[in-house]
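To the team - magnesium ion complex, inputs and output below.
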Amino acid sequence: MIPLREAQEFVLGACAPLPARPVPIDDALGCVVATSVVATEAVPPFVNSSMDGYALRSDDTDPAGGTGGSVHLEVVGTIMAGSPLDATIGPGQAARIMTGAPMPAGADAVCMLEECRYDAEGAIVVIDRPVAAGNFVRRAGQDVDVGDTVLEAGSLITPGHIGVLADQGVVELAVYPRLRVGVLSTGDELTSGPGPLPMGKIRDANRHTLLALVRREGWDPVDLGIVGDDEEALGRALDGAGARCDAIVTSGGVSVGDLDVVKLVLAQRSTGTMRWMQVAIRPAKPLAFGILDGPVIPVFGLPGNPVSAMVSFELFVRPAGLRMSGHQVLDRSVVPALAEGDFRRRPDGKTHFLRSFVSLDDHGGWHVRPMAGQESHQLLAMAEANALAVLPDGDGVEIGGQVQVVLTEPGRLGSWSSASERILG
Ligand code: AMP
Ligand code: MG
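Output:
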């Protein structure tokens, strides 16, 4: 057995970022930007009003030098967003202005509509309080100045960034492309689709789980179907998929059974790079990993048990795929949690990953319980879990102790005392 870190470093060492390429900004969400973007335009591009109201000269509103009193200003026009006023606001004048409309020359402040009064015809506006210079005025470049870095190389692109790029008139930018990941199930026992199950057959769960995991990372899943435990068929499937994928994930056929063909075929097709590892973890001990000779892409041979396949994806495919996608942070958040259940175990030289459910209490404290059903074929417990509790080799943790927990489903966090109690009973 080899330590998890060593296996992860071996895999990560073989998975370099894909070459960056330009994509339209609307296709860039969730990608990592390859080169920094520097602003060539100021945002806002011109001085404008941040309120519906009257643009005026602040000096006019304080005739008594701070002692107050009302002023009557002549309204010389209306400025809508998108339509500048081709006139200067002189002393004693004002212009009706809408949010986002350019400030007219001469004016230096806006009085919001709610604080104005009008004479009967609306030709005169009455201001009852002094309005400070700059009131409700957005200066040009207040958000972004020319020369500001608006997107740092290596950043994950968010919806907000896409708006910032649009603000700059950027139509395309260089990103690490979305990873295309092929998913292939292996095993003579597998069938898919509806209909009664012939004796001895099982349905193919892994392909669908792994395709979903790929999709959830924002990568493009490529369904490569099922192949039996047949070296030739598997070889053909890998050869055919290479051109369409940046990485391939298989499940099954990597343990020590008679028909564990994935490791054999990988050894033939990834000369010198294939490594069949017994990783010191439970579940997901066996892993075959190699770089194909033809199209030079990594192949992850995950174990067949459904929970093992998912944990192996989490520990190997996800960080490797993130690196190939240009990410620098490859690890998930790990939090210390109070053990609300029994996390004791026996020493066996392995790190255990227990399917668990974590909850956050009102004071920001984490609580964790192991799911019932910790065998590597018990997929339902994995589906109901939202975290993996990490138990290093040893005797584990008793109720009341502290457990390190990987938040694998941050969108499914429980709130302690309600949801967690209900789900876990
Ligand atoms: P293997 O790694 O091929 O020895 O398979 C280990 C266990 O996982 C066996 O019980 C297989 O039947 C099961 N298994 C393999 N592939 C799948 C799959 N795609 N979906 C569900 N179970 C599977
Ligand atoms: Mg098998």
